[in-house]
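Sample 3 of the quickstart, ligand 3,4-dihydroxyphenylalanine:
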Amino acid sequence: MTLSSSPLLERIKELEREGLAAIKEAVDLDALEQSRVRFLGRRGPLASVMGSISSAPPPERPLVGKAANAAKKALAEAMEARKAELAPKRRRLASVDGTLPGRKLWAGGIHPITQVMDEICGIFSELGFTRARGPEVESVHYNFTALNIPLDHPAADMMDTFYLEDGVVLRTHTSPVQARVMEAHKPPIRVVVPGLAYRRDSFDPGHAPCFEQIEGLAVDEGVDFVEFRAAIHHFVNAFFGPSVECRFRPSFYPFTEPSAEVDVTCTVCAGSGCPTCKRTGWVTIMGSGMVDPAVFEQVGYDPERWTGYAFGMGPARIAMVRHGIPDMRLLYEADVEFLGQFA
Ligand code: DAH
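Result:
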């Protein structure tokens, strides 16, 4: 028997081949560990070959020992190399918890004021109001004169602001669109006018110098204060729900007679009084009234035949009531964390 054909040496070569193949085929670290135990473990075939060296003929023994050690070393090295290949894969998998819900992407949303405006216009559309628009850069005539506001009247003083050039202002309210719509159309008219208005107001918890308004105008034969109140009550009930009450408070506007402020229960304090409602329990959401005959005369309507009501509301104020927001500035600062709550 020659040494090269020694069965032990043959066995060692065979084990080395099998071991290397198993290591190469290991798909992950667990499979690699299994092949380590299988080939290099204390009860593995290489260990038992080593254990049987003493049964080999003496001249053969050192060669068998050497071959077994070389096979062990080759397998251990191949195992390390394969481990390095598999390890990063395992680390990446381990850091992903497949049971976690996905991260929500910020996809944007509709601003709470815009939501409120759409909803308000929707409620009035059920009552037969269509939407109208008018220019933000407005003439003094439409902004003041056509609405029976003399330029030296205190009502104009309050809004006398942002002149672009002589006779041209950034509109201080959406009311000028009343006159524009009446000039362009014959009665009956039922319109809501969403849009921006500008005033030299300070930016504080209850005011902004540029803000949204929704104007409303209904003109027809036989429109009276009862119909006006019914429409506003319907709106408040539809928008805020039955827990919010509304009241009409006498007021003055040059373009309505009589005029009223409409207040609703403050939702921040449920009517008990807080800083948002100046401790009154009520928040004013609109100015309103029966259209003054002088306005009808300005646009060429016969005040003996036509009557109507008008209102102007502030959707920012209304959004505050709806969501219990204590400071209007929160709605205008582009704080996505805050605004995202209403998306
Ligand atoms: N234009 C008024 C303002 O901005 C609000 C207003 C009051 C509008 C009474 C109206 C109205 O149509 O009838 O303060």
